[in-house]
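Problem 12. The chain below contains 404 residues. Write out its predicted structure in token notation.
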Amino acid sequence: MTGVIGLDLQHSRSMVVLREGEGVRTVLAPVGDGIRYAVPNACDDQGRWGSAAAEASLVSCGDPGSAPAAADLLCWRGSPWSEQFLRGLHGRLSGYLGQVAPTPRNGYQVVVSALTSSTASDGAPPPADLRKRCAAAGLTDVATVDPTDALLCRWLTEPDPGGTPWEASPAVVAVVCGETWTSAAAYRIEGGRVIRARTYPETVATGTGTWCTELALQVLARCRPGVPTTAVLALLDGVGEFATGLRVTDADRALEWSGPLADRMYAPLRLTRRELLARQEVRAASGTIAALVSRAVTALAVDGREAGRPLILVGGCGASWPFLGDALSSLGTVRQSSAPSRDLAAGAAWWPLLRTRFDTTWPTAATRPGASTGIPSSRSPERRTEPTHTRTPGHDDVPPWLRP
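Solution.
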């Protein structure tokens, strides 16, 4: 196998990551559409895809004499699950790989991070239907992985930046926040195995897409007349960067918008984390997600024993905002990567190598009341059936903290 391509298809944008090489020579590279890494979910009948299609659509959106309105921000959006978009993705990958189709026959495996539950799935088809759509677009033998599994894979392939070895933090909760949904799952890592609570992942229809729209509109409201609608894509890029800036800034320190359109603003936009957290919509969303994660932490208990302070991994495009880490800090030790928007695609790219480690589940109190004998063995594992087309991982390929 030459490489693995991980996909994270969100409501308005998608992330693509290519993993090539083995062991210490492994390289993960974001693919993008040639203009930006976060690919707009846009395509048209002229063969345009991604940023090119979105910009063409924005030209015809709104009133040329007025600033872009709320309806214009995503007027270019199409379904990332449509055959037309997937065909455009196939074409982009083929060009990126040197006019080589991204298929197992050519040494490439495609893995999609996708919710398997119908709850808050944002229009994602069931895994079997997804694979059929991909095959019709030229992406054959596609595998799928739950977003929480993908996030955990992304972290299992590198040392914990906090310095705590995985053996000392066997209780883990993976929290993935997307644009329109958030999903959480409880895990235990023991003896090189990743064991997940049987009733998980759990998903709620709460994401951070509305926060992005709200901030973009605040910027536009401070701009002088004459802002072209084509500036919307750059503005949305800037929103993600501003969210990341807030996440690494003290709660009471004001961060000033200096991104796209800053030169057109007649008044500066300054915000603090504490000010945003005081907003009703942010408090409501943070509360919903905190309750979701609290239930996952409770599921970590085995034989009535508390799991201790768990490690809470937070990722996905919505994790760029600081509110998730702030809301979950009381439930465990929170860890986030420096590029959370790439977490799922990167984790999906690692899935074929690590999937055999996700070999069993344990029943929680919600699924089997009463005492148990602790974490069960893998005599009756619940195994996934997606095609992998990869060789069996060798000892040196698996991170040290996952080796038996």
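Discussion. Confidence is low (pLDDT under 50) at residues 365-398. Students who got a different answer should revisit the alignment rule from Section 12.3.
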